[in-house]
C-alpha cells in the first residue's frame, strides 16, 4: 500500500493529508503549545544591575520547546510509514519538523519538498497535496 503524505504545519496545528490508493484522509493534530508569553511583574534584587526574572523566562521557553518536541514526535509517529512526504506552511514549524525528521534516516529520505505557504483552509490544503502528488507520479 502506497501512502503519499502532504503536511501543512504551524506551531498550533498540523493537517496531515494521506493519499493512499486513490483514497484520501485528513488528520488534524493540535500542538497544545502556548505561544510566547511575556511574564508580568517580577522581582528585582537590591543591587541595580542584579539578575531579574530570567530564570522564569528560561523555564517557560524550555517548557515550550518540550511541548514542540512532543508535537513533532506525534506527527512523526503518524507519518512514519509514508512513501513520500511533502511539508508546507507558514513560519518556522516546517523547518523545525524537517530537522526532527532528519534524526530518522529512513524517514528523512522520504521528504520530497518543503515550501512556505500562507494560512490555508482544509479544502485548499487537500487540493495542494493532490496537485503535488499528481505532478510527482
Plain-language structure description:
The protein is an alpha/beta fold and 137 residues long. The protein has one domain (3-34, 52-135): eRF1 domain 2 (Nucleotidyltransferase, domain 5), CATH 3.30.420.60. The protein is 39% helix and 26% strand. It has helices at residues 54-79, 93-102, 105-108, 122-135; strands at residues 3-9, 13-20, 23-30, 84-89, 111-116. The chain has a five-stranded mixed β-sheet with strand order 3-2-1-4-5, sandwiched between helices. The radius of gyration is 19 Å and the shape is elongated.
Looking at this protein, list some descriptive labels.
single chain, 137 residues, alpha/beta, five-stranded mixed beta sheet, 5 strands, 39% helix, 26% strand, elongated
Using the 3D structure, state the CATH architecture: 2-Layer Sandwich
Q: How much of the polypeptide forms β-strand, as a percent range?
A: 25-35%
The CATH C-level name is Alpha Beta
| Helix percent band | 25-40%
What can be said about the biggest beta sheet?
Answer: 5 strands, mixed
Radius of gyration: 19 Å
Question: Mean of the pLDDT scores?
Answer: 87
What's the CATH topology name? Nucleotidyltransferase, domain 5
Report low-confidence residues grouped into runs of 5 or more: none
Tell how many strands the DSSP assignment holds: 5
H/E element order: EEEHEHHEH
Question: Going across the major beta sheet, what is the strand order?
Answer: 3-2-1-4-5
| Secondary structural class | alpha/beta
CATH level-four homologous superfamily name = eRF1 domain 2
First-last Cα distance: 15 Å
Gross morphology is elongated
Amino acid at each position: 500500500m502506497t501512502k503519499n503524505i502532504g503536511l501543512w504545519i504551524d506551531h498550533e496545528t498540523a493537517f496531515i493529508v494521506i493519499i493512499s490508493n486513490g483514497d484520501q484522509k485528513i488528520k488534524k493534530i493540535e500542538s497544545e503549545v502556548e505561544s510566547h508569553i511575556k511574564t508580568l511583574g517580577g522581582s528585582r534584587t537590591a543591587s541595580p544591575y542584579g539578575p531579574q526574572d530570567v530564570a522564569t523566562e528560561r523555564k517557560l521557553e524550555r517548557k515550550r520547546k518540550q511541548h514542540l518536541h512532543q508535537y513533532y514526535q506525534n506527527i512523526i509517529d503518524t507519518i512514519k510509514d509514508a512513501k513520500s512526504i511533502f511539508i508546507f506552511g507558514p513560519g518556522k514549524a516546517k523547518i523545525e519538523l524537517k530537522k526532527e525528521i532528519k534524526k530518522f534516516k529512513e524517514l528523512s529520505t522520504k521528504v520530497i519538498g518543503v515550501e512556505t505557504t500562507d494560512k490555508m483552509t482544509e479544502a485548499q490544503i487537500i487540493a495542494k497535496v493532490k496537485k503535488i502528488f499528481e505532478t510527482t507520479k
